[in-house]
Design a protein that fits this description.
It is a single chain. The protein is of the alpha+beta class. It has 13 helices and 18 strands. The strands form 5 sheets. Strands 7, 8, 9, 10, 11 and 12 form a 6-stranded antiparallel beta sheet that branches. A 4-stranded antiparallel beta sheet has the order 1-6-2-3, covered by helices on one side. A 4-stranded parallel beta sheet has the order 14-16-17-18, sandwiched between helices.
């Protein structure tokens, strides 16, 4: 789960990271009020969407008067911003964050991510802040500094100082940066985050170290013990299909293909998508209905997959260990009979009560195609679209 910039900043502030004063606005009137409340002569109006590269998309406006703040807010609210992270559909701006403009001397990058290959947290730093880290990695990879953090002991002071020195910080900047790094790590660890990014981490003309932007993502599986984080969820920024699936206890990720997948088990789902690709098809989604795939649960999965208008065929691939093939078959038949999909449906069942499940499918008289193996099922669903 992702949160907005202002929410990430508030969380980091609670752990001791220095951030500029700011205020949230939902209208031009509120934006001007926030600017007056903050004081000063220059402000920054920031669109709040779950995406980086907002500046390139016109989502960050620098203002030298309250009239400019009004104009910026009126321009941004309700506008769809398209970045390389949002895709072509973009995301609509429903809220703004107002901050004072900062007199910047230099911009750094600092991030924390989970490195599964090394089974640890990695702190990443760069002297080229304010730029997409992917761009820095491509064009100037030697500028990236990586420090592995052993999760059993956490980030140590010497590691934070090492990172500060490698970023060429001097004097009072070093200790301030060390405090930011250690505080950010504590927030990452204690809040079950999966990614934390401060970009830019600014050095001001007064030699203070301030987090001007922040981005955080959290482990969905840990939200049950992080009610304060769960309350930050903004469903308007999520894929409506994924949101609907999560609300119904299904694991769903929307993709760009046209073959809908209904599968039990994440590993089997990944294998199924791979074989679909090998056969020349493109999966439209990752959907794991779980081990207890009741007829009602299967019907919910069908509705979810069919809500994607790009879907031209559906592949149901079930291995019944905990489950039973006849239950799944009943669910498939009920869903097809009720929803009357205008696309071909291919079903492959294996495991407990497979013969009974296949009989239910074959005798349904609904035109459902049955396959004995995953290879046959993938080939059948791809061919059904080509016809």
């Amino acid at each position: 789960m992702e949160v907005h910039e202002y929410q990430a900043k508030q969380l980091l502030k609670e752990f001791g990271v220095s951030i500029p004063v700011g205020g949230l606005a939902y209208s031009p009137e509120q934006a001007v009020y926030r600017a007056n409340e903050i004081g000063g002569e220059k402000w920054v109006v920031k669109a709040q969407i779950h995406s980086g590269a907002r500046g390139k998309a016109g989502g960050i406006k620098f203002c030298g008067s309250t009239q400019e703040v009004w104009d910026a807010a009126e321009f941004l609210l309700g506008r769809k911003l398209v970045t390389h992270q949002t895709g072509a559909d973009g995301k609509i701006v429903y809220r703004l964050y107002i901050e004072p403009a900062t007199d910047i001397k230099s911009e750094l990058y600092f991030g924390l991510v989970l490195d599964r290959s090394h089974e640890c947290i990695v702190a990443v730093g760069s002297s080229q802040g304010g730029v997409d880290i992917e761009e820095v990695s491509d064009k100037n990879p030697e500028s990236l500094i990586r420090i592995n953090v052993e999760h059993a002991v956490g980030m140590q002071v010497f590691q934070a100082r090492q990172l500060a020195f490698q970023l060429r910080l001097k004097g009072a900047q070093v200790q301030q940066a060390v405090n930011v790094f250690l505080s950010a790590y504590r927030a990452f660890r204690d809040l079950d985050a999966t990614m934390l990014e401060i970009n830019p981490l600014a050095i001001t003309q007064a030699d203070t170290v301030v987090a001007l932007d922040a981005k955080m993502s959290f482990d969905d599986n840990a939200l049950f013990r992080r009610s304060n984080i769960s309350e930050y969820r903004d469903k308007s920024q999520e894929d409506p299909r994924e949101m609907e699936a999560a609300d119904r206890g299904l694991s769903y990720v929307g993709l760009d293909g046209n073959i809908g997948c209904i599968i039990n088990g994440a590993g089997l789902a990944m294998a199924t998508m791979d074989i679909i690709k090998m056969k020349g098809g493109e999966p439209a989604n990752f959907l794991d209905i779980g081990g207890g795939a009741s007829p009602e649960r299967v019907a919910k999965a069908f509705r979810l997959v069919l809500s994607d208008k790009k879907v031209d065929a559906i592949l149901v691939n079930i291995f019944a260990g905990i489950n039973r093939c006849d239950w799944v078959a009943e669910g498939v038949v009920q869903a097809v009979r009720k929803l009357k999909p205008e696309v071909p449906v291919v079903v492959r069942l294996s495991g407990t009560n497979v013969a009974l499940g296949q009989a239910i499918i074959n005798h349904s008289d609904l035109g459902i195609l049955s396959a004995d193996t995953l290879d046959q099922a993938a080939e059948a669903v791809v061919n059904s679209i080509k016809k």
